[in-house]
């Protein structure tokens, strides 16, 4: 991964980055630059990034906000995990990359002092930035950081398909004009492809080379050389795309060598050079294309030297003639003749014509220079020969398919880092002569190793990630594929409760072994890896049946009959709340949502008590039974607003209490058996499960349930919520998904013994990452997707 520099060092090494709009919120502190709008329970992350429209000294003052925003995006990418980072961070960065090249201003070449013009002849693989490249710098940096974190699959399975989407032809057939977004997408696609190829391993590059040729290069060339498709920014955008495409093809050549180029890139290279023949044919045909097109209202059809009839748009023809000039012919021909050597005759049928055009340009700038015929590639010899035009022409058989190695007799020789420097009239060819590959700057490196990360995707993690990045962001349904991602052994007793922290990068578990453990949720391994806990809380004396997090003060609440409030960072006990009478133990506990700091506790005498973790003593105390004998309180749930609490009793009775007044709003017989679990949902909805095999959805103040589900064989003893869906679990190790809104229906999956062993005792859902934590009676917790 590239070394991070301080803002002061960065200013001296690169052009100023773009301005960022808005601000970045982190906790209670607002940092410059807005990166994320929200990471809600549905897992949505919005990215916003504005870009500067010009390069000036004033923008240097903005390097600090830009660096801060980049660091925040990198931090989020690691924190959110591979699926969420790819779906919501990388996907939005890819869309943002296109915006960096929209408009003629972003397509202007930039040159520093002493730098040759963009079309300096022979310099085929060098950095020729346009303003859009400077604006897109932070975006590309963040995209590559995601690839550094999660490995090469990010490049090949997410970035490359998106590039193919950007360059794909439109659905309409016939003459058309690109819109500014499509034009910018072509430039962004070629730029990103260059960055991807540098980080691909040799094996991967060869595997996907046919895809790059057919899904990237050929579609780009079809737009670039089209006689009927115009660019909104005219010749300038087409020139930039031409220069970037030349550089991309040269980069691939320098990575794979002549033999592989002849095998895999013959068609793109020939297509690229063919445009000169078409323009040459049109120039020698004395046809008034413009008048023909206007008189009939249709584009004229012209016969070319290859026998094909093609439509020609006079406006586009004028645009092409401004781009593919004699200078462009010389700029392309000299380096490619040196790169390809004698095989240029096999790959490029019209190489003689392009050579003649290059010679004409050379004569126009230097009448005493060589004739056009002298621009033909030299014959191979026993040693590399320096071309007078500024390039070292490789031997015909000098490059094998061994990525830059040279065959000498029966051995493979690695070329030296430097070659004799003999600059021609317009300078050496970077990457081909004039110092060779070893003289390339860091930005123009041909290959870099992608650092191995502990979070690199492999095995089950890779399979699940590949599925998730193909799912639409509008898909609001929970999909359970039964893919094992991680295991968390450590408890010696049955798991009684599992709860993720609000950030979803850690979770808590309580067990019969009288401990509470804090576990990390960062991905690692291939799905078979076992993860150790970060912290073990051992102050309980009995089996722990409740664990929760008070979000406002950031502390953990756990209960074994007595409530313990402790710090999850240090494991230090902050407070212990014992029942007032040892004969009346606590039977259920719930925590209030932020910004409240209270805990609600139910005891066996049907009394509900509130305790503020910041203050000693009781806050409130309310009786729930009202003269009835509904049994023990089995479960408590607090509404998302904190305005009401619902209690479920062992008799199946439920009571709704207003926390502001202490009044019982409603009490009703909800089930025929014990209440096993209750959840409160936005919109005044309550979800309850019972030992009578039913799962029921209620409106708080309505007498009849809105939905009623019945399990055929086993009671639903644990469940969790995902948006408008309920994910259920039974002791028969069955996972079900049912809707809160649609008519009663439930999809059920039986857990396989390979992925889950023992009996399911607890379940928790990670709504942002869409994973399930499943606790078992053998003390092991599994993370499944």
UniProtKB/TrEMBL annotation:
Domain of life from the UniProt record: Eukaryota
Annotated keywords: Cytoplasm, Cytoplasmic vesicle, Endosome, Lysosome, Membrane, Mitochondrion, Repeat, Transit peptide, WD repeat
This protein's GO CC annotations: autophagosome membrane; cytosol; early endosome membrane; late endosome membrane; lysosomal membrane; mitochondrion
InterPro entries linked to this entry: WD40/YVTN_repeat-like_dom_sf, WD40_repeat_dom_sf, WD40_rpt, WDR81
Localization terms from the record: Cytoplasm, Cytosol; Cytoplasmic vesicle, Autophagosome membrane; Early endosome membrane; Late endosome membrane
Each WD repeat, start to end: 488-519
Region annotation (Disordered) ranges: 369-400, 414-440
Membrane topology: Peripheral membrane protein
Similarity field: Belongs to the WD repeat WDR81 family.
Name recorded for this polypeptide: WD repeat-containing protein 81
């Amino acid at each position: 991964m590239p070394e991070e520099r301080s803002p002061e060092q960065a200013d001296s090494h690169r052009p100023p980055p773009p301005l960022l709009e808005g601000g970045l919120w982190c906790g209670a502190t607002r940092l410059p630059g807005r990166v994320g709008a929200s990471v809600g329970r549905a897992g949505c992350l919005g990215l916003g990034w504005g870009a500067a429209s010009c390069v000036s000294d004033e923008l240097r003052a903005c390097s600090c906000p830009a660096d801060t925003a980049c660091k925040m995006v990198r931090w989020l990418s690691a924190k959110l995990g591979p699926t969420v980072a790819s779906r919501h961070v990388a996907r939005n960065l890819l869309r943002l990359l296109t915006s960096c090249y929209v408009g003629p201003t972003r397509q202007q070449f930039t040159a520093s002092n002493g730098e040759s013009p963009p079309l300096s002849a022979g310099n085929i693989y060098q950095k020729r930035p346009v303003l859009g490249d400077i604006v897109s710098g932070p975006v590309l940096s963040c995209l590559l950081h995601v690839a550094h974190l999660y490995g090469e699959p990010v490049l090949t399975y997410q970035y490359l398909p998106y590039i193919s989407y950007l360059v794909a032809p439109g659905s309409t057939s016939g003459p058309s004009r690109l819109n500014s977004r499509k034009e910018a997408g072509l430039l962004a696609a070629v730029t990103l492809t260059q960055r991807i190829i540098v980080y691909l391993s040799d094996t991967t590059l060869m595997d996907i080379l046919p895809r790059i040729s057919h899904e990237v290069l050929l579609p780009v060339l079809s737009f670039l050389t089209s006689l009927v498709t115009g660019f909104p920014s005219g010749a300038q955008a087409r020139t930039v795309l031409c220069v970037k495409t030349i550089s991309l093809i040269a980069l691939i050549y320098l990575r794979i060598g002549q033999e592989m180029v002849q095998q895999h890139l013959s068609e793109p290279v020939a297509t690229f050079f063919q445009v000169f023949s078409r323009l040459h044919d049109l120039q020698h045909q004395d046809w008034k294309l413009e008048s023909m097109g206007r008189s009939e209202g249709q584009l004229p059809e012209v016969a070319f030297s290859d026998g094909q009839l093609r439509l020609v748009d006079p406006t586009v023809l004028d645009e092409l003639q401004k781009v593919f000039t004699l200078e462009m012919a010389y700029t392309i021909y000299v380096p490619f003749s040196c790169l390809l050597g004698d095989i240029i005759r096999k790959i490029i049928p019209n190489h003689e014509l392009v050579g003649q055009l290059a010679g004409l340009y050379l004569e126009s700038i230097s009448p005493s220079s060589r004739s056009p015929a002298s621009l033909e590639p030299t014959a191979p010899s026993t040693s590399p020969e320096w071309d007078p035009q500024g390039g070292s022409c490789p031997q015909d058989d000098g490059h094998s398919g061994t990525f830059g190695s040279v065959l000498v007799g029966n051995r493979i020789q690695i070329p030296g880092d430097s070659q004799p420097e003999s600059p021609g009239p317009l300078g050496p060819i970077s990457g081909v002569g004039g110092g060779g590959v070893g003289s390339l700057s860091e930005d123009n490196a041909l290959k870099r190793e992608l650092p191995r990360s502990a979070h690199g995707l492999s095995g089950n993690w890779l399979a699940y990630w590949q599925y998730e990045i193909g799912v639409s962001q509008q898909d609001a349904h929970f999909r359970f594929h039964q893919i094992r991602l991680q295991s968390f052994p450590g408890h010696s007793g049955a798991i009684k409760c599992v709860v993720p922290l609000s950030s979803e990068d850690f979770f808590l578990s309580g067990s019969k072994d009288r401990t509470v453990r804090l576990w990390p949720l960062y991905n690692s391994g291939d799905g078979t890896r076992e993860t150790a806990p970060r912290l073990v809380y051992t102050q309980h004396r009995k089996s722990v049946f409740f664990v929760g997090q008070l979000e406002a003060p950031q502390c953990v609440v756990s209960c074994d009959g007595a409530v313990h409030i402790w710090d999850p960072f240090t494991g230090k006990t902050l407070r212990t709340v014992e029942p007032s009478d040892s004969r009346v133990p606590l039977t259920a506990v719930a925590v209030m949502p932020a910004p409240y700091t209270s805990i609600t506790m139910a005891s066996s005498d049907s009394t509900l008590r509130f305790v503020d973790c910041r203050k000693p003593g009781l806050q409130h105390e309310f009786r729930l039974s009202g003269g009835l004998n509904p049994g023990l309180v089995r479960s408590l749930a607090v509404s998302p607003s904190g305005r009401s609490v619902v209690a479920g009793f062992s008799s199946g009775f439920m009571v709704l209490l207003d926390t502001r007044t202490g009044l019982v709003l409603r009490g009703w017989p909800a089930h025929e058996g014990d209440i096993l679990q209750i959840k409160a949902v936005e919109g005044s909805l309550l979800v309850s499960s019972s030992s009578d095999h039913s799962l029921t959805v209620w409106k708080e103040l309505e007498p009849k349930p809105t939905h009623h589900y019945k399990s055929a064989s086993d009671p639903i003893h644990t469940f969790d919520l995902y948006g408008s869906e309920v994910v259920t679990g039974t002791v028969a190790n069955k996972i079900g998904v049912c809707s809160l809104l649609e008519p009663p229906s439930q999809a059920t999956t039986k857990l396989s013994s390979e992925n889950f062993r023992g009996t399911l005792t607890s379940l928790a859902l990670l709504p942002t990452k869409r994973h399930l934590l499943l606790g078992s009676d053998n003390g092991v917790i599994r993370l499944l997707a």
